[in-house]
Amino acid sequence: MVLGMRIGGLAAAAVSAWLTLQPGPPVAQSPPHVAQESVVQSQEVVEHSLVYRSPVDAEVIDPFRPPAHVGAPGNRGLEYDPEPGLPVRASAEGEVVFAGSVVHNRFVTVLHRDGLRTSYGYLGWIAVEEGEWVALGQQLGTTSERFFFSIRHGDRYLDPALVLTAGRVRLVPHLEPRGRSRLPAYG
Question: Which of 7, 56, 106, 137 is the least buried, fewest Cβ under 10 Å from its Cβ?
Answer without folding.
Answer: 7
